[in-house]
Amino acid sequence: MKLFENHNLKTYNTFGMEVFARKFVEIETAEETPAAVAEYLQQWPYYILGGGSNTLFTKDFDGTIVHPVFRGIERMEENGDNVLLRVAAGEPWDNLIQYCIRHEYYGIENLTAIPGLVGSAPVQNIGAYGVEVKDTVYKVQGYILSTRNPFGLSNADCRFGYRNSIFKQTLKNDCIITYVWFQLSKRKHFTLSYQGLAKALEERELPLTLHSVSECVRKIRDTKLPDPKIVGNGGSFFKNPVVPVEQYQDLLTQYPDLVAYDAPKGLKKLSAGQLIEKAGWKGKRVGNAGTWKNQALVLVNHGGATPNDVLNIADSIINDVNKLFNITLEMEINRI
Ligand code: EPU
What pLDDT sits at residue 195? Predict the structure, then answer.
């Protein structure tokens, strides 16, 4: 373990916010985790930080940030059709994608280029281009902070939902994830339900391989989403709102081009990006913060923005979308 005091978090959050943590602890091996739990995760406030790609630090953190950095991808079991991988929490997500492409394991290629670390992936059930990580998570291992006991949760135990899981509900602030197990397929198959992906593959006349699908996803992301290394951002700032079908139909009379997807329980999931665009916010800049020109759902730090600059824009967006559509957008990003 490494302990730093009054540590600058600028390079630990993709928004690039310059805030300081009173204490910052790096856990360097999975075996050190129980000791870190005992020493640093018994006294509030604390925060477990992965890649910082879904976190907006709103001010200096007067507590301890715990940051697992241990890596590793292990093949635990293999049969004719499937492989079981155990991946350490600190492994960068895109490294796992590259590993799976090299070994021809199918299932997560649509999640190419999502920033962040493997340990955070089940927390908000990362998803893109028709795939969610819940489709391949076999189990999640870690420690409960209040009891200091190890846990192992099956896929069903994780209670995954759209950008949601038990780790954002009953286990919020009460667990640290050490390993995520994935069950992946050795049989060639793809998920091409996202229209833009099938179209991009067709247009480029690429053969259907893990590599080509992954590269197409990367290209689509490049056109829509800002590279956090260049323009600070935390991906989608809001969740796509889920509304009753009657409300969607009412809105359609006024906005016939409204995008909607079927959601569980007969509900409709609308596109927050489109609502924000219709509210006049796409590509808008206020001081050093704004929304991205190609995807209004992404709030950006153009350089030197403060957390309040971003939060003020978020508040204005929530108000304007609410006035126009009577829908209250919910933040997807963690505000700390
Ligand atoms: N749209 C607009 N204007 C915009 C943005 C989008 O009209 O400014 C429309 C698009 O034209 C499209 C629809 O909205 O018809 C959906 O847009 P897109 O495919 O870009 O996806 P999204 O629903 O905005 C979600 C995820 C993304 C993920 C993409 C692709 C959430 C909150 N976001 O965005 O995830 O990459 O689908 O599957 O569910 C993230 O979570 O950080 C993230 C980037």
Answer: 84
Whether 268 maps to a domain, the answer reads yes
User: What pLDDT was estimated at residue 253?
Assistant: 96
Residue 130 counted as domain residue = yes
Query: Which residue range(s) make up the domain with 325?
Result: 232-335
The model's pTM is 0.96
The C-alpha angle with vertex 226 and arms to 225 and 230, in degrees rounded to 5, equals 160
Cα of 188 from ligand 1 centre, angstroms: 27
Token match 């890649």: residue?
51
Please, is 328 exposed, middle or buried when counting C-beta atoms within 10 Å of its C-beta (0-12, 13-18, 19+)? exposed
Between CA 166 and CA 51 the distance in angstroms is 20
Residue 201: C-alpha distances to residues 86, 111, 195 (Å): 31, 16, 10
pLDDT in tens, 252-303: 999 999 999 999 998 999 999 999 999 999 999 999 999 999 999 999 999 9
- For ligand 1, whether the C-beta of 273 sits within 6 Å is yes
Residue with the smallest CA separation from ligand 1 atom 26 is 128
Q: Which residues of the chain have pLDDT under 50?
A: none
For a mutational test of ligand 1's pocket, the pick from 274, 298, 317, i.e. the residue with the most ligand atoms closer than 8 A to its C-beta, is 274
Q: Is the peptide bond before 122 cis (omega within 30 degrees of 0)?
A: no
